[in-house]
Amino acid sequence: MKNLYKFIIKLSIGIIMISTVLIGYIPEPEYFIEFTCLSNLICGIVIIIDGILNLKNKQIPNFIYIGFISAMWVLAILCLVGALGLYQLNFRGAFFFLHSINPILYIVAYLFLYEENDNMMLKKILIAPYFVCLYFIFDYIFGLISGNFVYQLFEVSDINFGYAILIFIAIYLLTALFGFLSIILNKLINKKSHS
Question: For the residues 88-103, what does the mean pLDDT come to?
């Protein structure tokens, strides 16, 4: 019965995530390459698949989940930065969900409904940044080709290869930290619920 509840909750979260992506981005498909769009869409698919696997007493492999947990932490922190007025984010309509509600739902589902095992902790931490780092590489290449980065925070001419490497290392370390903290929180929460 517990697995049925997990399935229903995860299916609901996945539907919300995918629906808000479609509502927010179908009117403006040229923005489909944004980090917010791709991360919410993929996370919605991942959590639905995980819910289906829960019905068979299985779950999605950690390396898939943990990379998107890091992505959702990035969105949650950007939301906080936007709420403080330090960065302008679109919070209208579906974007309120995409930037704030969806990341929180995904993170909470991971913390309370995903059971981390104790194997390969270092490996999990090292691979946690994969999605965010792949997106950064995509955005850098996109900027070099098109002349503009996806979010246009910087001018392409301001970011040389050496600077891009430093940004990449910073992103990698930060998102690895998000992965580490998520795994620790997950284990603490699940340890308390099993005792």
Answer: 88
Calculate the alpha carbon distances from 67 to 14, 49, 173, 192 in Å.
17, 15, 13, 25
Q: What is the DSSP letter of 66?
A: H
What's the pLDDT score for residue 56? 95
Q: How far, in Å, are 98, 103, 105, 188 from residue 115 at the CA level? A: 25, 19, 16, 11
**What type of residue sits at position 130?**
Y
Question: Distance between CA 43 and CA 17 in Å, rounded?
Answer: 7
The phi, psi pair for 115, rounded to 5°, reads -105, 105
Joined together, the tokens standing for residue 83 give 């709420």
Single out the residue of 106, 107, 102, 109 nearest to residue 6, CA to CA: 109
The amino acid present at 159, given as its one-letter code, is I
- Structural contact between residues 51 and 11, judged by C-beta atoms closer than 8 angstroms: yes
Question: CA 167, 171, 174, 180: dihedral to nearest 10 degrees?
Answer: -150
Q: Sorting pLDDT into bands at 50, 70 and 90, what band is 153?
A: low
- DSSP H helical segments within 26-101, as ranges? 35-55, 62-83, 94-96
% residues pLDDT > 70 (the chain): 96
